[in-house]
Design goal:
Structural class: alpha+beta
Distance between the termini: 79 Å
Low-confidence stretches: none
CATH topology of the largest domain: Nuclear Transport Factor 2, Chain: A
Shape: elongated
CATH architecture of the largest domain: Roll
Helix content: 10-25%
Oligomer: single chain
Radius of gyration: 26 Å
Largest sheet: 8 strands, antiparallel, barrel
Order of helices and strands: HHEEHEEEEEEEEEEEE
């Protein structure tokens, strides 16, 4: 038994250098692809289309945050310097790598800062870039990114009466949003004792919820001015809910 243990230990020690070498190779490839991706992002505000021409594979496909599908020619033709008064930068953060031979998938977050005539905007994206190694050089074959929903700046809305919206709004048997008020802040729950999702006012009768999707919540009123409907606008669709009568005391 002791001999077998010694053999296992010896085999493990023999394999250790190969594991270290593979890990080092992954780090080198990751850093190279981060550099290539960062160069692509830096080229956008400067209008350096040649960087995209050089880095994209000829058969590349890019899907942006709006769902637009573009090939190499469309992407390269779209790169122009930002107009005067507008500037921006995109920083690659938290990169990860999946390496399979001559194919590598780089993922992470893009942190975008924009300046629009003195107004500062910040947008975050999750991205996935697929590179292939051709003739010894990494080329971007496919790219996709999605916008990360984030909390919007708070707005002061005049004439807002939060208690107008308190109530239960149903959309199916046993299904409803319960809108309530706590300390002057509106929130809703989808079941008794469930997680409270805050509602942030954008305008009178229009809110953005504090959930992961940051959906719009629109309240509708009847001819007498009383709130009688809640509309959750999610993924460009409307889920309508009718206000239920208050329970009889």
């Amino acid at each position: 038994m002791r001999t077998s243990l010694h053999r296992c230990l010896a085999a493990g020690l023999a394999l250790a250098p190969s594991f270290v070498a593979a890990a080092d190779a992954d780090v080198r490839v990751r850093d190279e692809l981060v550099h290539l991706t960062q160069a692509l992002m830096d080229a956008i505000p400067a209008g350096k289309a040649d960087v995209w021409q050089r880095t994209l594979a000829d058969d590349a496909l890019v899907i942006d945050e709006f769902g637009r599908r573009q090939d190499k020619k469309a992407i390269v033709d779209s790169i122009h310097p930002f107009p005067q008064g507008m500037s921006g930068s995109i920083e690659i953060r938290e990169p990860t790598l999946r390496l399979h031979g001559d194919t590598a998938v780089l993922g992470g977050q893009m942190y975008e800062r924009e300046d629009v005539f003195g107004q500062s905007l910040v947008v975050r994206y999750i991205f996935s870039n697929t590179f292939v190694r051709r003739d010894g050089a990494w080329k971007l074959l496919a790219a996709i990114d999605v916008t990360l929903p984030t909390a919007p700046p708070a707005l002061a809305v005049e004439g807002l009466v939060p208690r107008d919206y308190v109530g239960r709004y149903g959309y199916g048997p046993g299904r409803a949003y319960e809108v309530a008020l706590d300390g002057g802040r509106l929130y809703f729950t989808t079941r008794a004792g469930g997680t409270r999702t805050p509602l942030d006012a954008i305008a009178k009768d229009v809110f953005m919820d504090g959930g992961d999707e940051r959906n719009l919540i629109v309240f509708r009123r009847d001819a007498a001015g009383a709130v009688n409907e809640l509309i959750e606008r999610r993924k460009f669709n409307d889920l309508r809910m009718k206000r239920e009568p208050a329970p009889t005391p």
